[in-house]
Amino acid sequence: MDDVTTAFRSAFGYGPEGVWAAPGRINLIGEHTDYNDGFVLPFALPHALTASAARRTDAAVRFRSRQSEDGFEARLPDLFPGAVEGWAAYPAGALWALRDEGYTVDGLDLLVDSTIPTGAGLSSSAALTCATVMATASLHGVDLGPAEVARLAQRVENDFVGMPCGILDQSASMLSTEGHALFMDTRTMGTEQVPFDPSAAGLNVLVVDTRAPHRLVEGHYADRRRACEEAARHLGVAALRDVADLPEALAALPDDVARRRVRHVVTENARVLETVGLLRSGDLRAVGPLLTGSHTSLRDDYEVSVPEVDTAVDALLAAGALGARITGGGFGGCVVALADADRVEACEKAVREAYRERGFAEPAVFGALPSAGARRLYP
């Protein structure tokens, strides 16, 4: 924390009024289900974004990041959808969303620092947005609960940045607790903290940053969401979560693409519920095949995987991982795997060798422990 307060003072010439932290997330299972009113099971990473901030009373906005040479300065009236590009769009959107919903907030000086790998599908943007909403609200006397922060942060991505995401990432960042996965019903917004302690079962959660750029605003994500909404309308249901008879639904759909998209969402919801049941019973090893089944579905039915991701999954499974899958929205990003602790080294070696053979960029491999959600660090 001393680093960000010192950096804030260096950037702005005075000390911050507060420091907030919001973590990245891994989604254990439940991909592309959140915008279909379905079920998700993420957990927070120890990697987090830290925001030091101070309020202003002159409608001026100044942002700095220790991960970027590009600062940002503007005035509050100049913050509207489409007006800001790059990383600064997320904190700018946070200010816009608060004001657009009628909260009285003025200007802000903000400095951020992050250990969340960018472009890896670990929700660095959600962490940035959540941290800025928390900081701005707190400094201007606006009392927001964690779920409301998550909702506002989702609105920033939807309405300001132009990314039609569900609420998984923001909820994981705001609501997660250490040693648990967050089971969430995205229709009711009901949540349950499900105990998840892989190390106690002799297991490790491995994350492979495939270094395949994770790009979702380019239209692929929106195409998948639109296909699901069209299929739901065709089937006469509010959302694909309501499909009760999958074979009947598939027979009623007009084309094979729609059938594949629906099959993924319906079977993925079932995999989430089965995984939650296994975690409740303590049978963590049995989760592995569900992860692999999720990847197969995302690769073949939802078509969001890429060669770097498939190579990592195949290498992990060949080296003895219990299960592995793409995590996040897809089209690059990270792979999450469950493996016995004594197979971790072999799994990492296998991925690196497979990448060298294919001529891919060197991947990053690290362990992930379910960690605490967003919080104020100071004062």
UniProtKB/TrEMBL annotation:
Pathway: Carbohydrate metabolism; galactose metabolism. The active site is at residue 169. GO terms for biological process: galactose metabolic process. The keyword Disulfide bond does not apply. Keywords: ATP-binding, Carbohydrate metabolism, Cytoplasm, Galactose metabolism, Kinase, Magnesium, Metal-binding, Nucleotide-binding, Transferase. Residues 90-175 form the GHMP kinase N-terminal domain. The record marks 25 as: Transition state stabilizer. GO terms for cellular component: cytosol. Residues 7-54 form the Galactokinase N-terminal domain. Gene3D superfamilies: 3.30.230.10, GHMP kinase, C-terminal domain. SUPFAM superfamilies: GHMP Kinase, C-terminal domain, Ribosomal protein S5 domain 2-like. Residues 278-356 form the GHMP kinase C-terminal domain. It catalyses: alpha-D-galactose + ATP = alpha-D-galactose 1-phosphate + ADP + H(+). Substrate binds at residues 31-34, 221. It holds the Pfam family GalKase_gal_bdg. Mg(2+) binds at residues 125, 157. It is found in: Cytoplasm. It comes from the Bacteria. Its EC number is 2.7.1.6. ATP binds at residues 65, 119-125. GO terms for molecular function: ATP binding; galactokinase activity; magnesium ion binding. Belongs to the GHMP kinase family. GalK subfamily. Catalyzes the transfer of the gamma-phosphate of ATP to D-galactose to form alpha-D-galactose-1-phosphate (Gal-1-P). This is Galactokinase. It comes from Nocardiopsis sinuspersici.
